[in-house]
Amino acid sequence: MKSHSIAIIGGGPAGYVTAIRMKQYGINVTLFEKKKLGGVCLNRGCIPTKALVKIADLFREIKHSNDFGINIENFDIDYSKIYQRKNSVVEKLVSGVEFIFKKMDISLINEKVTSIKKDSKGFLVKAGQEMQFTHVIIATGSVPKELPTIKFNHENILSSTDILDMQELPSELTVIGGGVIGSEFASIMSQLGVKVEIVEFLPNLVPFEDEEISKRLALALKKSGIKVHLKTAVESITNGNGKLVLNLSTGKTIETEKVLLSVGRMPFCDIDLSELQISFNKGAIEIDDNFMTSEPNIFAIGDVTAKQMLAHTASKQGLILADFIMNSLKGNSIKSEEIKYENIPRCTFTYPEIASVGLTEAEAKDKFGEILVGKFPFSANGKALGLGDTFGFVKTIADASTEQIIGLHIIGPAATELIAQGALIIGSNMKIDDVNKIVFAHPTLSECIAESVEALHNLSIHTV
Questions:
Q1: Smallest Cα–Cα separation from 82: which of 162, 185, 164, 160?
Q2: 175 near 186, Cβ under 8 Å?
Q3: 420-434: per-residue pLDDT in tens?
Q4: Helix crossing, 79-104 with 15-24: angle to 10°?
Q5: pLDDT tens for residues 372-394?
Q6: Contact criterion met (CB below 8 Å) for 386 and 411
Q7: What is the pTM of this model?
Q8: 115 with 277: CB under 8 angstroms?
């Protein structure tokens, strides 16, 4: 058997990033990926979805072009071209990662890993043949959840993967689950002319966001023509008149052409680990602060750990783990950098966009008691007025006793880009006075962040 040092299982944002960083450190790794490099994010998630977001945004702007003095007539959607463009964007990114692997001479094996066993020299990873490694990193990701009574049939009850594979638009779509993924697809499809309804069991859409933001999103989606059913369950789905009939807990029914079942994702690991001492909790691999499992020298990163199912979280875990293993191989016992998961920015690509970092208002009150809250609306910002996109606001939260910024939440134009400033502010433990010393360029949307911070002391210039 050929001897290798480190195996990485899974080529998504956790696995491929770790492989590249370790190679940069001069450490040889072998990455196993049964499909394509990039994992769900590049191939079946973040990237193709954002390609559709661009088309939806462009189509919406064309429909409202008269507001800007531009008369455009007889425009329509060719979804086959949209589908091709989406695939082209994905292919460019995936081929780019493949090119990096080739140029850096990173060993890539396109085989499914079926088992990992322990032997006297380390671990035996089986993917067709057995190969020996001293360290193993499991980065097998996650898969879409189903409900006990509602399952994917991949024809008209779709997963998030299935909806990206559609080559024509349905006339109607009902989204079961109003979290990030469900709300994004509802927003995209509605903007492209599909009749959309959302059924959400909880009281709010995107329920892990600040409650005020969630309510404002629901208002915006309803205003755009999406029907939103909150505190509602789908009890069963039947067939009728050539359509799906959703029977709701409220006694109402919905007739629809397609259903997107979007009730979250769950950790995924189909490797036989029965000969190892690896602990699981609700399907997620349990890890310590160094990402090590209960089996020494076997690590886990990304969605399979269920710490926070975001691509950039997975990548950050991988980069920190690469540092830890590099130091371990050199005999340096250095504790890994601590990840404060609440300080990792979260983005939702609906229209309007949502982005947040740090604590929500409710979480901040629970943790700190007395807090300060400052808000500034995009309707009072010159750049937003020029863009014709003024819905929403920036909300900043600070601990009243220390005046440290502990939360920043945005709903509105370019929220997912602006949140990087919030991540810097909160990640650097900045206080109100620290932010007030920064000069924000004019005219920019980022001025809304500055004024929301000023509003913490009721000193915002452009609002009363």
A1: 164
A2: yes
A3: 999 999 999 999 999
A4: 30
A5: 999 999 999 999 999 999 999 99
A6: no
A7: 0.94
A8: no
